[in-house]
Amino acid sequence: MMLPAAPENLLTAEGRPRFGRYAGQVDAFDWHELAPPHARGAWWRRFHHKRWHYVALATPELFCGVAIVDVGWTNTAFAYIFDRRERRIVAEFSQDGVPGLTASLAGNAGGASRFRFLSRRIGIECVGQRLYRLKVEGPGLRIAAEFGPDLMPLLLACGPAAGGSAHATQKSTGLPLWGEAAYGAVRHSLDGGVASFDYSNGLLARETAWRWASAHSLDLGFNLQAGYFGAQENALWLDGQLYGLGAAHFDFQPAAPLAPWHIHTDDGLLDLHFKPEGARAKDKNLLVAASRYVQPIGTFSGWVRASADAPKRIVAQLAGVTEDHRSRW
């Protein structure tokens, strides 16, 4: 099913969220005018408002993941470089910030998000004409990249969040990439690679869990999630068009995330096998907050199609990630 064009605003004039999946983008993610039954008090919103800005970069040699996260009462950020040939993370940092001081999250996917804590810095911004820039600096790690323009529509998904209120996300498929990633004395060109981004903004439950998969080339890509957001953000980009997908099923071994995964949707439009090359994992327990997270990096093979009667498109060794994540935030 091809998706309709995105509305101008996430909320109607009466404050009702425009739940659904759309092709395109909006200029603001603002929940202050939410009407009942989705509206909550300002104090509740302060502690349940979660936002993140994530960028993935993929080349035959490297996979890089970068994110800035604001959970309302604090913020954090991470960056890593994964060497696909050595099958290991060769540089990374993860840094908790100071509330209200170290992170600034964009109000939409076309805005600028920044994190700065001592020598660790991340900047994600749109520099005009649908072009984006990423800069990362940290101990032994540096990324300077530009990517875009978007060759296929952005996904806009808005829906209820289990245990919370409303949530929305804006995601790209593969974008042309150029730049450089460096660690220590080693430098890698990113030219000719593929970038993608995820801007998410919502009022979520204190206990939130999800499984996620994402991979992109310049002519094919997908995003899948099972958990707090249901099938709202499940989408396929193919031949310049954006299609909605059904509920996603993740068959894997949680105790052995580097074993093969099988992922498929219940509408018969996607069936993929994921072969991990390595993973980034964190397990934090700060008493008032906790996060258990594993993000395998690897390749997807199988098939996708735009409709039940369309021919299957073969997917072979498409670089991307899966994720098993549970947060108390």
From TrEMBL:
<protein>
    <submittedName>
        <fullName>DUF2804 domain-containing protein</fullName>
    </submittedName>
</protein>
<dbReference type="Pfam" id="PF10974">
    <property type="entry name" value="DUF2804"/>
</dbReference>
<dbReference type="InterPro" id="IPR021243">
    <property type="entry name" value="DUF2804"/>
</dbReference>
